[in-house]
Amino acid sequence: IIMWPFGHEEQAYTPEPFVSVLEQIANEMRDTILDTSGTQYRPMQSFELYPAAGDSCDWHFGVLNKITYTIELRTLNSFSPPADQIFPCADENYEAFLVFAENALREHRLIHIPADTHYTNDPEPLRLHVLKALDPALDGSVTLHTRKAGDETYTATPMTLNAENEYLASIPNIACGDTIEYYFSLTIPDGEDILLPQLGWKKPYTTSVLSKAMSFRDDLETDKGWLTNPADDNATTGHWTRSDPEGTTQQPEDDHSPLGTHCWVTDGRAGTNADEFDVDGGATYLTSPRFSAIDGSVVSFWFWRSESRYRLDRADIYLSNDDGA
């Protein structure tokens, strides 16, 4: 297992953009180990294994802003490998450490979460996080480069600092139906250009430009006709209810919408412990009201689910175009 901070308590999620950096490096280490020995290591956040109040990685990362990991070595023979496994274990982790060291010494890192679509009537600026060795200080200029797919030249647009580490820029001159190609560049004082994606204009990001019309929206503050607990709902506890949930160690207290308090939740009561009102004994069902989803429609929703090594429940999501028949 390759674990990154935080791990001092349940649900201690590392915030963006840092988690993207840590997860990306962990995946590179995993791939290097797999290429070296064929052994599969799993990247994960530390608390997903179990919370550890004395996790030194949390201190190094949270206080010193240093990239840190805990690697749990291959678990043959209850953590006591035979002699012929010691060298392969050391060899694969030495290669992973070289990947870690190279990334830890990297001066700048660019992070962008691409979107498949961009809407003309609800435009969102492109966001780029720029980190300098996981330190917010930055010296250099940041530029967005865009072009319509098929054009020869890119348009350069300077990005503006929006918040700590985050830069914004809008795509210029877009029209519904266009496909836009784009990449980012950071020019630092010595004149070096750092590109994202790494190949820049040779292999850019792409996004499709559409016009958006909302056919159905529900913030769940009122019941718009959702159906719950049908005849084949056989759970003994944890039935769906629309409520303002009470926070526990296994569920957040607040819903996602900035305004309002309600959401659909599998019994939002806290109880005397976090397991008292969770889903037990079977399945519970929630069905939305009918809405239009003609060709080209996009359905999106927010959900939250507690998952750990001790809770292996599934959350199945189905779509139907015949009222569930």
The number of strands is 17
Quickly give the structural class: alpha+beta
Biggest sheet overview:
6 strands, mixed
Percentage of β-strand residues: 15-25%
What is the domain tally? 3
What are the low-pLDDT stretches, counting only 5+ consecutive residues below 50?
Answer: 133-137
Radius of gyration: 24 Å
**Proportion of helical residues:** 10-25%
Tally of alpha and pi helices:
3
- Span from first to last CA? 44 Å
What is the mean predicted local confidence, pLDDT? 84
**Global morphology:** globular
Order of helices and strands: EHEHEHEEEEEEEEEEEEEE
Observed structural traits:
six-stranded mixed beta sheet; four-stranded antiparallel beta sheet; 325 residues; 3 helices; globular; Immunoglobulin-like; alpha+beta; 3 domains; 17 strands
